[in-house]
């Protein structure tokens, strides 16, 4: 039944193209894949008094992409204040965003308060404490593979260089994260797929 669903979807796709997110949805729940990508059922509308998980994720991806890109252009021995750089980037993005209540509610989580550090402070601490994060080699790198005539597209959020090889990083802003068991048993295809896309087997 599940293979039938997938074949119907692929057969109806004129471009024979599938996003990595859609592929992951199919692996986790073929029924949800059917509703969203075959029948095109609209998703439930989010409350307007807060940013949707998708909007929040886009903002954080923009901040981290801009930050990693700046590190790529900075000499290795340069002295960088990570927190100040992140705050400057976030402020620029905020100024280009609509001034809504939803954004105002998220600002505290992002920038923090006098008594509670925000997400930017936590990110800056991660970069300070882990040397490999200071050596990005790619950010938001688009990739694609072709399997049986079906093109699967994806984006690697960031790639970092270490003495033991490359580290692929995928940013998650949702409440539910895939466990190591999910990855091992291929219930979640994110890291296996990205690893294959980075080094496909001939």
| Gyration radius over CA | 19 Å
Number of helices: 9
- Which consecutive residue ranges, at least 5 long each, have pLDDT under 50? none
Shape by Cα distribution: globular
Mean pLDDT: 78
Taken in chain order, the helices and strands follow as: HEHHHHHHEEEHH
Tell me what portion of residues adopts beta-strand conformation: 15-25%
Largest sheet properties? 4 strands, mixed
**Derived structural class:** alpha+beta
Give the strand tally: 4
For the record, give the distance between the C-alpha atoms at the N and C termini, rounded to a whole number.
31 Å
Report the helical percentage.
40-55%
Molecular structure report:
This protein is of the alpha+beta class and 202 residues long. It has nine helices and four strands, in the order αβααααααβββαα. It has helices at 2-12, 20-28, 30-38, 53-72, 82-95, 101-111, 119-129, 180-184, 190-198, and strands at residues 17-19, 136-147, 150-162, 165-169. Strands 1, 2, 3 and 4 form a four-stranded mixed sheet that branches. β2 and β3 form a beta hairpin. α1 (2-12) packs parallel to α3, α2 packs across α3 (30-38) and α5 (82-95) packs antiparallel against α7 (119-129). The longest helix is centred in the N-terminal third of the chain and has 20 residues, at 53-72. The mean pLDDT is 78.
């Amino acid at each position: 039944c599940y293979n039938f669903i997938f074949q119907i979807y692929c057969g109806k796709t004129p471009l024979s193209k599938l996003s990595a997110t859609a592929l992951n949805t199919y692996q986790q729940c073929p029924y949800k894949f059917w509703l969203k990508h075959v029948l095109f059922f609209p998703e439930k509308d989010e409350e307007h008094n807060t940013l949707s998980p998708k909007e929040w994720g886009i903002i954080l991806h923009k901040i981290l992409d801009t930050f990693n890109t700046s590190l790529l252009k900075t000499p290795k021995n340069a002295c960088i204040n990570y927190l100040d750089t992140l705050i400057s980037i976030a402020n620029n993005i905020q100024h280009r965003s609509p001034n809504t209540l939803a954004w105002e509610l998220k600002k505290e989580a992002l920038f923090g308060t006098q008594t509670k550090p925000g997400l930017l402070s936590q990110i800056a601490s991660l970069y300070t404490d882990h040397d490999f994060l200071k050596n990005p080699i790619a950010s938001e790198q688009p990739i694609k593979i072709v399997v049986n005539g079906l093109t699967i597209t994806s984006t690697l959020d960031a790639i970092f260089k270490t003495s033991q090889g490359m580290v692929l990083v995928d940013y998650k802003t949702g409440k539910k994260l895939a466990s190591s068991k999910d990855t091992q048993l291929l219930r979640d295809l994110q890291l296996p797929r990205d690893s294959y896309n980075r080094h496909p087997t001939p």
